[in-house]
Specification:
Layout lengths: L3 E4 H15 L17 E5 L8 E6 L6 E3 L3 E2 L1 H4 L9 E10 L3 E10 L6 E2 L6 E6 L5 E8 L9 E6 L2 H5 L9 E5 L25 E5 H4 L2 E7 L2 E2 L2 E2 L6 E7 L13 E10 L3 E10 L8 E2 L6 H4 E6 L4 E9 L9 E8 L10 E5 L3
Parallel strand pairs: 1-9, 2-6, 13-18
Antiparallel strand pairs: 3-4, 3-12, 4-11, 5-11, 6-10, 6-12, 7-8, 7-9, 7-11, 14-17, 14-24, 15-16, 17-23, 18-22, 18-24, 19-20, 19-21, 19-23
Length: 352
């Protein structure tokens, strides 16, 4: 498929016709029955879970600049994820705070080898973006790959193929501001389900750590200062335990985590602590999922003695919705500068 370059002037002129002719159909939720494909999805970029300000910064893994975090539409399609052959109607209204010679808007599933383009030949591209001007319109994309994890839109510029084609580079980070498009509603699959299939009330997620891993290595944690880790300082001792395999969908506010663990450590630990974390790429790999992280709420076991069995029965109520099922339990205990301890350890499960 030949790449389409959407000129700024064309986008502005075409807007009126686009919305007069399409808003009453493509702008509403698809009438296709859930799980029948190929089907159509509508997204308004301003309605993503990420919010209406998108930061595009230097990509530390490549030559380009890329949105961090990306626009996340996963929550809308969890019960019926887009598949190859489906059509996505992408509606946009945005401005940027820097001039950009060419920018690309790509549909991506970052959970597949960190980067799967859902329509490699069908990304939306804009030339000659002028700082402060508002661009509005729509673009249809037919997917070449299916979503298996997350459904996101990334903005990028300084892409290798653009630079090789002679487009000027923009070395600065850029903020894109998104605006709601009148008459357009993002497809929400839950609204298409029969009432009997719509989740009602909080769910309880039972996590038996003995079934997840035979042992956990708790390592020295170093603080992050101005974007880099200071290896000369000790913040605490920590480990991350993934419970992603237990989840069919991301935890949401009100959901309950019931955690059980029977184990022993190879050192004394005054207070072992834990809280749930969203480890999704779209939140920068870290977002606490409970608001109360006081000792009263996060200590799961106290006065642990080396070699002695301890048991954990802990309940957390989720306050913050996860962006994906990439969820961890952050396990940690405090560093004592007076004793320079307790030090790293290994915690081994004890079978019943």
């Amino acid at each position: 498929m030949k790449k389409t370059f959407v000129k700024a002037a064309i986008a502005l002129v075409a807007t009126a016709f686009t919305f007069m002719s399409c808003a009453s159909t493509s702008g509403s939720k698809s009438s296709a029955p859930t799980s029948v494909h190929p089907r159509e999805y509508t997204i308004d970029l301003a309605e993503s879970a990420t919010g209406t300000t998108i930061h595009v910064v230097k990509n530390q893994y490549d030559v380009n600049h890329q949105s961090d975090p990306a626009m996340d539409f996963t929550k809308f399609v969890r019960k019926d994820k887009p598949q190859a052959g489906d059509t996505v109607h992408m509606y946009y209204k945005f401005s940027a705070d820097h001039d950009i010679s060419i920018a690309r808007f790509s549909l991506i599933d970052p959970t597949v080898n960190y980067w799967l383009e859902l329509a490699a030949d069908g990304a939306m591209e804009f030339e000659n973006i002028v700082a402060g001007e508002i661009y509005e319109g729509s673009y249809d994309i037919v997917l070449q790959n299916s979503v298996s994890g997350e459904f996101k839109v990334y903005i990028s510029y300084n892409n290798k193929d653009h630079v090789e084609a002679g487009y000027a580079k923009q070395e600065d980070a850029t903020d894109f501001t998104l605006y709601d498009v009148d008459g357009v509603e993002t497809t929400d699959v839950l609204k298409e389900l029969p009432a009997s299939e719509v989740p009602v009330g909080p769910k309880t997620i039972k996590i038996n750590l003995n079934e997840i891993s035979a042992f956990t290595e708790v390592k020295t944690g170093h603080p992050w200062i101005n974007g880099s880790q200071d290896m000369s300082q000790i913040e605490n001792y920590q480990a991350d335990i993934s419970y992603m395999s237990l989840l069919e969908e991301p935890p949401v506010p009100g959901d309950i985590l019931e955690i059980y663990w029977k184990a022993k450590a190879d050192i004394d630990i005054p207070a072992l602590k834990m809280f749930p974390v969203d480890h999704s790429a779209s939140v920068g790999w870290w977002k606490e999922m409970v608001d109360d992280r006081s000792d009263e709420n996060v200590i799961i076991a106290a006065d642990i003695k080396a070699g002695e069995t301890f048991e954990v029965f802990k309940t957390f109520v989720i306050d913050v919705e996860a962006a994906s099922t990439d969820c961890n339990l952050r396990l940690y205990y405090d560093y004592d500068p007076e004793t320079n301890g307790p030090g790293p350890c290994t915690i081994i499960r004890v079978k019943d």
